[in-house]
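Supplementary Methods, section 5.1.

A reviewer requested that the exact input to the structure prediction be made available. We therefore reproduce it here, unchanged from the version used in the analyses.
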Amino acid sequence: MTRLTEDMIWGVPDDKMDLDTRLMKMTGKTVKGIAMEAAGLEMDDYDFSRFFAAAIPITSGLGIIGGFAKSVNAITTRLGMRGCVTQGTDVAGFSEATNLGADIIMMSDDPMFIAYNTAERKYTDNSWGTAMGYSVCLKNAAGGVEGKDVLVVGAGRVGSWATRILLDWGANVQVTDIDYSKAEALIPLGAKAIRGVENAISDNTLLINAAPYIIPGEIIAQGSIISSPGVPHYYDLEGRTRCKAIIHDPLEIGAAVMAVNSAAYTIKKEMRA
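The structure derived from this sequence is encoded token-by-token as follows.
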């Protein structure tokens, strides 16, 4: 998982990025709507207030990212869940969360960020959650991806998951990575590995940028839709002018999908009963 910095997530708790408004314009759905579709909840809305989500500050590895747990709590609260940031950290925080009766526990160290459903003993991790969330965003913004060409830039954990998801939806997926062997490893799944990233970007209008790669505006095709979870995130004026939509936020889409998908373990079980 790419390590976020405090300045990247400064606006999340107070929703200063107004993500719902921006997503509605580009995809026709709010963060909650995207997360529900990502989790396979085929309903117009759902009251998540029955779920209590606890965000645990983690000090291991490089330590706590300033504002991270507070931001995660704000995200789950905006979904309608009840929540808190635990006073304890690490194992003490986990113990506190369980004693408080948390249904979902959100916690992240350097390599992994998960949403753990305590009743079902299942978790959703950030790599899948981010890939699914941004793939759903791209699909909605593009009016579907079945039979369409999609370029995935970056074949790491998020890019690999996005490739699998898009292939499952019937997209023609091309993958490029600075380490060509990573893109090549996805060929057996049905993807096409591409060596020349700049030419590939110029030749495609539907992209997921899952790499720490700043795309020069001059190589972006007119009318492109870029679903862009990768950080650092920057698009120059020419790139922003050429694009029909650039979908990005530092944390919320992926974390919302994680929380809703973990809640969905319980919801779907009840629906099957």
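The mean pLDDT is 91. These observations are discussed further in the main text.
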